[in-house]
Amino acid sequence: MKFKYIYFSFLFALILSSCTFFRPRPPKLFKRALKNQPYDVIIVPGCPYDGNDWTIAMKGRVVWADYLIKQGVAKNVIFSGGAIYTPYVEAKVMALYAEELGTPKEKIFIEDKAEHSTENIYYSYQIAKKMGFTKIAIASDPFQSNLLMRFSRIRFKLPIAHIPYVMDTLSKIDDVHPKIDASSCKVENFKPITETQTKRQRRRGTFGKNIKYEKE
Length: 216
Description:
Blueprint: H1 4-17, H2 26-36, E1 41-45, H3 56-70, E2 77-80, H4 90-101, E3 108-111, H5 117-130, E4 136-138, H6 142-154, E5 160-162, H7 167-170, H8 193-196, H9 199-206
Parallel strand pairs: 1-2, 1-4, 2-3, 4-5
Helix pairs in contact: 3-4
């Protein structure tokens, strides 16, 4: 499916959620990123995988991450996400797709503990710090990036930039159809988060309230 269709899906989701328009807009954030490149690492939050094919959301994030690496905007990427709604570890699946697209394996790192978007950022940030990375950015879709912007600004000592994908750019590189064997990403005796956490716990997790924060 062409990425131009994501645009309409994205607008529809935006209207339904009654969110405000993005400030600043993705093209402006991308131009800002180009001025400050290269980033040591980009953090890419995960998406559920059903064992058959990647979703539009996962495709957009992985293709964008691969583009940023190949363009030299970022040196490395951390894919983040555990097995949350399906038995497949999201970060590992995304890493396999990225490798098939041509992202060098040595530039790919995995964070497989996060269950919520805020945890994607926090746990990946901890990995980045331990590896000595100081220039960090989040690379995701514009909708998620907007939701995480405040959290990324108030919770961390090191600044975290945002590089949401730009639709015009992404639509030019969407004709990719990689195939992977995700059997190594599957968790045995899996239970979805809807069975392991209550609604209240999941709601708290969405806002990063299940994280045990470390002092920096």
